[in-house]
Design brief:
single chain; 159 residues; mainly alpha; 2 domains; 3-stranded antiparallel β-sheet; 7 helices; 62% helix; elongated; SPIN-DOC-like zinc-finger domain-containing protein
Length: 159
């Protein structure tokens, strides 16, 4: 008896077709298709799946858009999605920088043998300097975690 082989999606060479973008308002995001209208993904990139999603969720609102108007709407939605993603990555990078700064201050305090409560004094100094040199970024300095408990955890993490 022959062994039944399980079908794999990779074997079927399914690839995102550029024409689906305007037709169904989808873009390729990683290995999935992403709807620019509702940000839902379709795991299997088949035209049928994209068409079914578009018809069941967005057909009524977008059926009247044709030609240049449709292309402009797609472009606008795609740009909104891109700016949203940029905002999240920018926020993530900012959080990383804040944590890194907190670790660096903790290292300096531990190396010089100062009490961890001095982190609050260092933060006050940083805020004063930031207010004078770059007032537009002074809000970022407020978010650097330099409390005594935080400094103690940072020092313990690096040991």
């Amino acid at each position: 008896m022959a062994e039944k082989r399980k079908r794999k999606i990779d074997d079927e060479c399914r690839q995102f077709q550029e024409e689906w973008s305007l037709k169904y308002f989808f873009i390729k995001s990683g290995e999935k298709a992403l709807c620019v209208i509702c940000n839902e993904t379709v795991a299997v990139m088949k035209e049928y799946n994209l068409r079914r999603h578009h018809q069941s969720k967005h057909q009524e609102k977008y059926v009247q858009l044709e030609g240049k108007v449709r292309a402009e709407k797609f472009s606008k939605l795609q740009n909104q999605l891109t700016s949203q993603r940029t905002l999240f990555s920018k926020s993530s990078n900012e959080n990383e920088s804040l944590t890194k700064a907190s670790y660096k201050v903790a290292y300096v305090l531990a190396k010089s043998g100062k009490p961890f409560t001095d982190g609050e004094v260092v933060k006050e100094c940083l805020l004063e300097v930031a207010e004078e040199l770059c007032p537009e970024k002074s809000k970022q300095f407020e978010n650097v975690a330099l409390g005594a408990n935080t400094i103690a955890r940072r020092v313990a993490d690096t040991e």
